[in-house]
Amino acid sequence: MKRLVLLLLCLFVTPITTASARRIVRPQPMPPRPPVLIVQVDGKAKPLKVSAVKVDVKIHGHLAETRMTTTFYNPHRRALEGDLYFPLPQGATVSGYALDIKGVMVDGVVVTKKRARQVFESEVRRGIDPGIVEWTKGNNFKTRVFPIPARGTRTVMVRYVSDLVTQRGQSLYQLPLAFKKKLPSFHLRVEAVKVPSRPLIVQGGPRHFKFKSWRESFLAETTRKNIRMNKNLLIAVPNLEKRPIQVERGPDGVNVFTIRDTSPMGAASPQVAQLPKRVTVIWDASRSRDDASRATERKLLARYLTTLAKTRAQVKLHFFRDRLAAGQTYTMPGQRSQLLSAIDKVAYDGGTQIGSIGEALRDLSAEQVLLFTDGISNFGRENPGKLGAPIVVVNASTSANHAFLRYLALKSSGVYLNLATRDLQAALKQIQYKPLSFIKATVVDGKASEVYPRLPEPVSGPFAIAGQLDSPRATIRLDYGIGGKVTHSRTFQVSADGAGKGDLLKRYWAQKKLADLLVFPKRNAEKIVALGKTYGVVTPGTSLIVLESLEQYVRHGIRPPAMLKEMRVAWQKAMAQRDADARKTKVSKLDRLLKLWSKRVMWWNKTFKYPKNFRYFGGSSKKSRLGSVRTRSRSPRPRVVVRPPSRRVVVRPRPTPRPTARGGDGFADRGGAADQKKDKKPGARRRQVAAKIALKPWNPNTPYLKVLRAAPKERVFAVYLAQRKTHGASPAFFLDVANFYLKRQEAALAIQVLSNIAELELENPALVRVLAQRLLQLERYDLSIGLLRTAKRLRPEEPQSFRDLGLALERRGDQALKAGKKQAAKRDYIEAMTLLAKVAMNRWARFREIELMALTELNTILPKARRLGYQENPVDKRLLKTLDMDVRIVMSWDADLTDMDLHVVEPSNEKAYYAHNRTTIGGAVSRDFTRGYGPEVYLLRRAMKGKYTIKTKYYGSRAAKLLGAVTLTVDIYTNYGRANQKRKSLTFRLTKRKEMFIVGQIAL
User: Do 285 and 343 touch, CB atoms closer than 8 A?
Assistant: First the structure.
């Protein structure tokens, strides 16, 4: 999940050590990388070439606004979708985003995160230019751009506000400019506004790049061609402590102020030593931690262990990944080296389940707990629950969930140490001594409001607050203390006299407020969204989106940006007309569903007659000996044509297929009322068939499995880690290796390997679904359901999100019922039916008639819930009827805009598939889904004896990302909806278009 982020882009500030407050020392090696736009080509992540970079920086006191505009070139022959990830400094958020549209940089519009993503993906499917920037887990931001034209360019601008980092008296600004290749075009402008002294270039920047006096500021600016920038830019701003207060009048007339207290510790601040005798250390050993950041954390831990020599403390070390490992206790100082050696030797692998460490955090014997993690949980439970001893949370990664880590520290009366902005010596002191904390800000005189932060938090260096000044002058007191008791205060006089004009401080104030709200994100969800919309900043609940045309803005009901004044006027008129048209054309969803369901029941009631030993020879009535059998050839697939000059993907619409006699769903009656057979009487014993399901084992011919099979038993895991270096970017690798360990009866290790899929990319629903479905097959229901809840949150506009979760809950309910846990089973059944009802009672434009599948499944759960005392009707009672079947086959896949086909060859040799969706013996195939995910379903109420061969075909993909293997899941049911229902599942992959794969056989 996080590994890709760390490899792409790091727009952040790293720790810099200095020898004294008066002398700047060259920094340690710095890890940040410049912008990289990643595209998927043949299943591999590849960076695009950077053709131009333009950077504008405005340093305003202790704040810096960075605006980076980057142009990327696509050398491939196909238009692509790209992802630009970037973690920001702690507390910073994206406050500006623009994308080039017809040669003009168009600003993004703030909308809810869910809505922005839905609109983006809808427009991508239309082949039109959209772009969004969204907040993913932690303080990571993701920019998605489509299309990047074949052999063409796209330009992206991202803007953010951040604090300068202060270490040992020096205020430092850093910009990642270490590009690997020469830049054809480069422009850099840095302005320092009203700062006490001339800024100094400590590292990086073009030759002769220096600050000169300019108006009331200092300015450094240059434009270069074909320049190699191999170092990051580091700028020091001396003497900022002389101007601790800034005031700015915003466009709305509100004065916003910031106070930066450079000496919050105070001369009278006491230091209360902590001398614990029992310490717990919890070390995150998930795959994403296999980077340089853990080395800094290890140094801090080594120094801290040395301080425990006097107390001869007992230190219990736990590792965790997808689960918490048993702890090992070491006595200090004698076993210090053994503990550090264990950390040095641990293998970093697997997903991150922070909820699994709750037991260690609640260890009542521990006087102090040190937790080393980035806080980005991606597998299983996220919240560890109740806490015990104070937690010192340590993180050195730039890609981290700062808000969650801060929450853990505050909740336990501990401290969060972000080593990306703090040197080791200062961090060590905060572990050794009870932390001094900011307690509150008080308005002593005058009027000021909305002062943030409002929550107490530990401090170890300069501390900043922001608020709104409601009177010409105000006196603000900052209280500091230990353990909630005030030990000393600092007072500041704030005045509106001489206030500058702009909105930089207002955006910084919004970030400060957001940081407080994120401590309790669920409780403050509505406030977070409102803040993002009001101040135009990206939050976990809001994104910025750029659209191209008035038609797009009208279609999605999004108001164009202020810069497009004429379009805004036209949009207002068009929206008024659209709303009027919508009221006239509203159609009842229930009436439509009742008609579809009636056709399904007619099919289920129908008796299909055919001679004994019937064999099918084709569509001719003479050959079939049964009269006319309707068949239809498949309509031509859409063809994608890319025109580089306009960056358009033009999709030729697929002609509507000729319907069967009574509708296009494949379930209408052909024979009329005379052929119908009435249901059996209520309470009658349902039909049962004896069946044997034989699945073709998935045995990929991959080089890494050959190497693993040949390895000695004691070397297998080491060989896996070596192979992971080459193949670890593909989910297929982890699926295959997990199966390898399952065959060796090493289930725990198989789950660990499988959980690596969650680490591949931040909030990728396709990966989440693949992992969840595999865990479901392994009957790891809690883990699977947790991931499917994440998929539902990420993709609430797709019916599969609700259906997949509903079916997983049903299976967990079945397991609970077998264990005698009736109430747990009842809860799962009720939630499952609620989710399936949502699918059934809504219309899904891309997945027409998926409502019928969900309704069929809901009706198989209802009898089980009834037996447990459930009395309600989950849907209209006219839609309640259990349709049991001898055979039901369901196929779904993970790739959007991808067409997979289900084929079933019946014992009569008749093939059921999209172009022949009704068979002589009663087999029926659901509507063909050509735009991703499925599911496609084969149904047969009364089966003919013999063998049924199940096949699938990878027809093709229209995805903007060039995909590798497509992962499919096939569920095969016999006696569906009956007491003796049986199911078998298989997950496999297809890589070649037009490839036909035999899944297995059913023998009846």
Answer: no
* Helix (H/G/I), strand (E/B), else coil: 575: helix
CA torsion 341→347→353→356, rounded to 10°? -50
Phi and psi, residue 973, nearest 5°: -115, 140
Give the chain's end-to-end CA distance (angstroms, integer).
Answer: 44
Tell me phi and psi for residue 928, to 5 degrees: -75, 120
- Contact between 397 and 375 under an 8 Å Cβ cutoff? The reply is no
Report how far residue 461's alpha carbon sits from residue 906's, in angstroms, rounded to the nearest whole number.
75
Indicate the range of 33-37, 121-125, 476-480 predicted with least confidence: 33-37
Is the CB of residue 839 less than 8 Å from the CB of residue 800? Answer: no
The pLDDT tens digits for 166-176 are: 766 678 898 88
The number of helices, as runs of H, and strands, as runs of E, in the chain is 22, 44
If you write DSSP's letter for every residue of 466-507 in order, what string do you get?
EEEEEEEEEEEEEEEEETTEEEEEEEEEEE-TT-EESSHHHH
CA distances from 949 to 689, 694, 913, 937, 953 (A): 17, 10, 12, 14, 13
ω into residue 32 within 30 of 0, thus cis? no
- Which residues have C-beta within 8 Å of that of residue 192, sequence separation ≥ 6? 59, 199, 211, 217, 218, 219, 237
Tell me which architecture the domain covering 252-269+436-501 has in CATH: Sandwich (2.60)
Is residue 683 classed exposed, middle or buried when 0-12, 13-18 and 19+ CB atoms within 10 A define those classes? exposed
Label each residue of 741-787 as H, E or C.
HHHCCCHHHHHHHHHHHHHCCCCCHHHHHHHHHHHHHCCCHHHHHHH
For residue 303, the SS3 value is: helix
CATH fold group of domain 8-240: Immunoglobulin-like (2.60.40)
How many other CB atoms are there within 10 angstroms of residue 428's CB atom?
Answer: 18
CB 327 within 8 Å of CB 316: yes
- Tokens 């980035």 belong to 374
Amino acid at 960: A
User: What is the Rg, in whole angstroms, of the alpha carbon atoms belonging to the chain?
Assistant: 31
Residue-wise pLDDT tens digits, 779-797: 999 999 999 999 998 888 8
Contact (Cβ atoms closer than 8 angstroms) between residue 957 and residue 912 = no
Write out the two tokens for 633: 């050839």
Torsion of CA 646, 120, 11, 241, to 10 degrees: 110
Q: Where in the chain is the domain with CATH 2.60.40.1730?
A: 8-240
d(CA 531, CA 545): 17
Secondary structure (DSSP) of 934-966: --EEEEESSPPSSEEEEEEEEEEE--SS---PE
Helices (H), 756-882: 765-777, 781-794, 799-818, 822-840, 850-867
Task: Give the model's pLDDT for residue 843.
Answer: 81
Question: Which residues of the chain does CATH 3.40.50.410 include?
Answer: 278-432
Please name the amino acid found at residue 202: V
The fold for domain 278-432 equals Rossmann fold (3.40.50)
Model confidence, pTM: 0.71
Compute φ and ψ for 278, nearest 5 degrees.
-130, 120
Please tell me the distance from the alpha carbon of residue 170 to that of residue 16, in angstroms, as a whole number: 9
Question: Containing H/E element for 706?
Answer: helix 703-710
DSSP 236: E
AA letter at 442: T
Task: Give the Cα separation of 80 and 122 in Å (integer).
Answer: 16
SS3 859: helix
Tokens at 583, concatenated: 């009221």
The pLDDT assigned to 627 comes to 30
The Cα–Cα gap between 544 and 561 comes to: 11
Those residues whose C-beta lies under 8 Å from the C-beta of residue 725, and which sit 6 or more positions away, are: none
Over residues 399-434, the pLDDT tens digits come to 788 888 988 888 888 889 988 777 788 889 888 888
pLDDT at 30 > cutoff 80: no
